[in-house]
Amino acid sequence: MSQVKILLDESDIPRHWYNVVADMPTPPAPPLGPDGNPIGPDALAAIFPDAIIEQEVSRERWIPIPEPVRDIYRMWRPTPLYRALRLEAALGTPARIYYKYEGVSPAGSHKPNTAVAQAYFNHKAGVRRLTTETGSGQWGSALAMAGQMFGIEVRVFMVRVSYEQKPFRRSMMETWGTEVIASPSSETRSGRRILDSQPDSPGSLGIAISEAVEEAVSRSDTNYALGSVLNHVLIHQTVIGLETKKQFEKAGDYPDVIIACCGGGSNFGGSAFPFFADKAAGRKVRLVAVEPESCPTLTRGHYAYDSGDTEGLTPLMLMYTLGRNFIPPSIHAGGLRYHGDSPLVSQLYHEGLIEAVAVPQRTTFEAGITFARAEGIIPAPESNHAIRVAIDEALASKRTGEPKTIYFTLSGHGHFDMGAYDRYFAGQLEDTSYPDEAIQAALADLPKVARNPA
Amino acid sequence: MSQVKILLDESDIPRHWYNVVADMPTPPAPPLGPDGNPIGPDALAAIFPDAIIEQEVSRERWIPIPEPVRDIYRMWRPTPLYRALRLEAALGTPARIYYKYEGVSPAGSHKPNTAVAQAYFNHKAGVRRLTTETGSGQWGSALAMAGQMFGIEVRVFMVRVSYEQKPFRRSMMETWGTEVIASPSSETRSGRRILDSQPDSPGSLGIAISEAVEEAVSRSDTNYALGSVLNHVLIHQTVIGLETKKQFEKAGDYPDVIIACCGGGSNFGGSAFPFFADKAAGRKVRLVAVEPESCPTLTRGHYAYDSGDTEGLTPLMLMYTLGRNFIPPSIHAGGLRYHGDSPLVSQLYHEGLIEAVAVPQRTTFEAGITFARAEGIIPAPESNHAIRVAIDEALASKRTGEPKTIYFTLSGHGHFDMGAYDRYFAGQLEDTSYPDEAIQAALADLPKVARNPA
């Protein structure tokens, strides 16, 4: 049998992150303040350290990875690139399928790639305390672990529906010494405002971000950390794609298509952007973002300026959005339940340089179970979205007889999501399509700035 | 920073398992039938395929690993050997601490090392169906996954207390296509007999084994697979120690002490026996088995012939035992709740060639949390037992100032054990010492054979 895992040495951990801004055909649109005017870097200083703000606005292609960050990366990186020989055999496809497994991190997903970087830069700036939000718990776990590594106290606002569905993600964060609060909570003005009008609110990432940002803004010893969406987060995640490229080189192969699930965009951006550099240089490679039909930000959202949180505490960003007041159905891929999307991913999609596809929930679990039975690993529900599309590509290859090299990122394991698998087996999972009316209504909700639809 | 992970290539996966019998100073005592006379290999033919029976009685030092088994091993093997630099720093010890992480297997522990082998040999013998028992769920998960890989239907009798404490282990097995039954169940005569006298029995491995063996014996299409205790199981697990030796060679170091938790003995035997070969050849290395104070088989049990299950369906084996009717306290290290111990481990301990130590439950969680906060990975409660002793060794090294090379096996992750961590944090975990009266009472329970105490 051929090699199953394509491994790299610790010395192969990238020494620089890649910044896709350097290769984008048009510069990214600036974030706007509440007055509709572009904001400068200093507007972010209340919640981010300087090093992060510099990365956020950087146009440099390569950003150095500090050695203390690489030292923590060594604990699980480089992650393995797998050749999915058993899945290929199960599907009877002539396609070659590869996946990179980010679930080997102690927190079980790709999220620590940026959590460790953010904890380090805050630690270096003398920050002792970080707040954040978490949906499925993957980001919160990652920051809990990373905070512990640098002696930073972490407080996590966890979307209530996930807090209830995934009590053991909370225990995991507590094991790493972190306090977890169900959001909306009564601890912030933003939370109380929501609870007043909707006491049984399931919460949303937008609300949890409002709470975490509010607390960071109101305390001088406290900064905020975001797990996705922003440029610096996607920059940190490019260790995924940079390693993948080295691994394909080692395997003597190159992908025809890169597939990754896309919520806020950090997994997709981190996986695909280093390949965008090749694409920009003329190489043929498709980059496909996969989102849930119940939260179809890229495929059915508006491309407009909107805020990143429900309360409008963040700057306005030009992105695909379902509206900041969007509260998505309680699907199980909690990491994909966000109203907006990374401005970088949004712009590349808007310019036709990347693809996006929305898939229904049940079919993603079906794909994940097929994968688990062939490859052993039980995937996170988020990752099942990428697996669905990868399997569809492989089956198309089978129909046409055309061999093809398919890559997807297995962004995390499903060890804390077995309740969702239970409900799938019990026939209790729904396919929720997002209603047209809500998409229309979001238009009226958009902030009134000159560049937005009237 | 030095290398954190000492990795091997897939080509370094051992081509042979190691059989410690070849290096033991005295041959192992034979298993006995109910009449007290040694049984031959054919007595096992009702539940095991020939290849497994040959391994069970083999005295060959090296047993070839079939290529289809190595091909499945490639999915996660060789497992990494970690240098615990951050734990060393946290403890301020001059000791060098290493651990091999078996939790990278899809089932999350070392158990697939033998599950895959057993599924393969049964598949090759034309068996379509396997029954087994599981305590913490790690063995059941491993056999569920392995069965799926070879197209074998698997039925798992899961100790009721674990079934209730760990519903997501059940979901995991179901995701791999396996049926899970809480034990004692009404599906077997053995189960019904227990339920009649004790309807709320928490179950035990001994009872679950009775149920699984009864079903395998009564159906001609069905074999039985055991996750620990027997010689062939420990043989398969030696891939752990064989890889560890190669990794120490690569690191230019050699352990002064090998530490592994010990329930039925498969993790300890698999980790330590390849080093016993060195010890037998004159090299100085300590081999330490760690068990819970609440189930002190080696440290306080009787060295006597006893059966492996509650109903007396298995042959009698000479081993340390707390008595086959032993029902241990519902501690959280479900994988260490077994009345007996591997005859090979027992004999080596009886002859003073290995060490054993029993540790209380709370202090193992304390050690596991110290480990998680330094090294990131959240360990299984079973593994916390080894971590406790490894930390104690490192602290002793700190006191004496003597550098030392300490190795322990991190046999699995704790992703399905977060409820136990919750209870630890809530102060609800007890330190249960096993009562002297029960140890005395077990004497009277021992089977009446010539070599047992009267």
Topology at a glance:
The structure is a homodimer of 454-residue chains.
Chain A lengths: L4 E2 L9 E3 L31 H8 L4 E3 L2 H7 L7 E3 L1 H7 L4 E6 L10 H13 L4 E6 L3 H12 L3 E7 H6 L1 H9 L3 E5 L5 H9 L7 H14 L3 E3 L6 H7 L1 H13 L5 E5 L4 H15 L5 E7 L4 H4 L1 E6 L8 E6 L21 H8 L4 E5 L1 H15 L5 H20 L4 E6 L7 H8 L10 H10 L9
Parallel strand pairs in A: 5-15, 6-7, 6-9, 7-8, 10-11, 10-15, 11-14
Antiparallel strand pairs in A: 1-4, 2-3, 4-5, 12-13
Structure report:
2 copies of one chain form a homodimer. With 454 residues, chain A is α/β, with parallel strands linked by helices. Chain A has a domain at 5-10 and 66-108 and 234-450: Rossmann fold. Chain A has 18 helices and 15 strands. In chain A, the strands form 4 sheets. Chain A has a 7-stranded mixed sheet, sandwiched between helices. In chain A, α2 packs antiparallel against α4, α4 packs parallel to α5 and α11 crosses α12 (266-280). Chain A binds chain B through residues 1, 3-5, 7, 9-10, 67, 71, 74-76, 82, 86, 104-108, 145, 148-149, 167-168, 171-172, 174-177, 369, 372-373, 375-378, 413, 415-416, 418-419, 421-422, 425, and chain B through 1, 3-5, 7, 9-10, 67, 71, 74-76, 82, 86, 104-108, 145, 148-149, 167-168, 171-172, 174-177, 369, 372-373, 375-378, 413, 415-416, 418-419, 421-422, 425.
